[in-house]
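Quick one: structure for this chain?
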Amino acid sequence: GQEEATMKAHVTEVGIAVHSVLVGVAYGAMTSLDSLNTLAIALTIHQLCEGFAMGPLIYKGARSTLHAIILVAIFALSTPLGIVIVALALQYGNPGPNHS
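Got it. Here's what it folds into:
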């Protein structure tokens, strides 16, 4: 029923969101421009496939339009969140004992 569909959507959403944050961390940590471009293409295709997988789950599992929008937003923002985490870590992280 609806409860089972909602649970499937939430469990899958959490798994994909955690995965996407980690993908964003990997992307944010890249230093080579060639690697960034290649990874950007791969990530675009990868995220597109994940989006197609999540779409029906969200459609069936969302309790309202707002609920669906929230689930889509979490999916859409999880990879950029990983990139921001790396950017903040590089900006404010501990520079180590040899930093002057």
